[in-house]
Amino acid sequence: MNIHEYQGKAILKSFGVRIQEGIVADNVEQAVEAAKKLKEDFGSDWVVVKAQIHAGGRGKGGGVKLARNIDEVKEKAGAILGMQLVTPQTGPEGKLVSKVLVAQDVYYPGATETKEFYMSVLLDRAAGRNIIMYSTEGGMDIEEVAEHTPHLIFKEEIDPKVGLQAFQARKIAFNLGLSGDAFKDMVKFVAALYKAYDATDSAMFEINPVLKTSDNKILAVDAKVNLDDNALYRHPDFAALRDTAEEDPMEVEASRSNLNYVKLDGNVGCMVNGAGLAMATMDIIKIAGGEPANFLDVGGTANAQTVKAAFNIILKDPNVKAILINIFGGIVRCDRVAQGVIDAYNEIGNIPVPIIVRLQGTNAEEAKKLIDESGLQVKSAILLKEAADRIKEVFAA
After folding, report:
1. Which CATH number applies to 21-105?
2. Is 157 annotated as catalytic?
3. Could you report the per-residue pLDDT of 272-293, keeping only the tens digit for each?
4. What residues form the annotated binding site for substrate?
């Protein structure tokens, strides 16, 4: 679950990570009050107005602006709020900006000794361990750094038996070329950052940039945080941080029905039970000449209600030209799933695209008979090859 920068920074601060302080605002008036509060607390007329969306590259799209006085705060906040911000990570449609973070200016006027670093904490699946990835080239696209200057990217593996060790934090500070007070502050920063990542069961913490100020303080200027959905039961307060306006509406609707759904760009809707079967189903669709329009896992309790909800979500995608239902009857009986498909079909009414139903497992033959005798415009199959042939028939018609 992605969260906004201001929310990620609040989590970091709660674990002792020094951050660029800021106040979130929903409108221009709140932005002005935030700027006044920051001046009162930190003494600078300059603030940074930052769009709050779930995407990186905001500065490139005009979503991060420096304001040197209150009039500029009004101007910059007014321009950013309500804009459809397009960045390299949003796609051409962009994202609507409904909040801005008014943050303190940490690049002190006239300062010449600041330095930006990149740092992230995430799981390295190949190594089976958490890693801290860092670079002296902060403030840039890390992908570009990795491609053109890979020797400037460092990785520190964390042994899960003992966690982050003090010598590893010192090694990171040394590799970043720091010394003196900045070195000591970076060691503290790394330790606090890893503690925050570990204690919150996060999937990723990315700080770009980590800033060394001209007075040798280390702080997080940005925060891109992805919380592990599967661990939210241990952090019920984090569930309130979810901003559904930043997510695909169909994925939000699917989550409310306890369906696992990911939209893709194809033309064949998929409804399956089990992630492995979903991958095989998408392969079959491609082999048959189609392209999967989604990943949709109805789980192990497929019934009329879940099938209906899945139908409604798939049919909202105008690119869908056919639907393949591929269910393995293990815990759930195939004939019950078939009846659920029939009931959902009758309840929804006229479904404008062909439906192929492949049921295999417990009571598969009975399920096929139910589908074939239902009188509905549904094509049944038992083998995957039969399902592929039905898809070919759809596109050949």
Report:
1. 3.30.1490.20
2. no
3. 888 888 898 999 898 888 899 9
4. 273, 330-332
